[in-house]
Specification:
mainly alpha; about 60% helix; 4 helices
Length: about 140
């Protein structure tokens, strides 16, 4: 019991700044302090069992290193398929919003019109060459 009192009294120094000097306490006071500490510990254990975590530790910390999360191949495939579907939907909306270009019609000459133009050009060049010109 005395050894237990000493270990709990050592904890008292840590937990209670009021009782920083244990040398001034008598045996009865130390026993009472140990009883109070045991009561506090049992209450912390009860509180932890209600809250679902260990007593004396902040809520955000866990013991040891956090393990890296791993995703299954099926999970990655589902995510990739969903992403492809979203992009396909986005592209469909983008093309639907864009107005369709009207196809330009090329003006084409008929064979008779082309022959007429060619004859006129040949006549111009014949006239220019007869006049001794090398350019029109």
């Amino acid at each position: 019991m005395l050894q237990r009192v000493l270990t709990h009294s050592a904890r008292l120094v840590y937990y209670s700044p009021i009782m920083s000097n244990i040398k001034d306490l008598n045996v009865a006071q130390l026993k009472r302090a140990v009883e109070i500490m045991e009561e506090i510990e049992s209450l912390q254990a009860q509180l932890a069992s209600i809250g679902g975590r260990r007593a004396g530790r902040p809520a955000g910390t866990k013991g040891g290193k956090r393990r890296k999360r791993r995703m299954s191949a099926a999970g990655r495939a589902r995510i990739a398929a969903a992403a492809r579907a979203r992009w396909a939907k986005f592209r469909r909306r983008a093309t639907a919003a864009r107005p369709a270009k009207a196809a330009k019609k090329r003006k084409r000459f008929s064979a008779a019109a082309r022959a007429k133009l060619s004859a006129a050009a040949k006549a111009r060049w014949a006239k220019a060459k007869a006049a001794g010109k090398s350019a029109l």
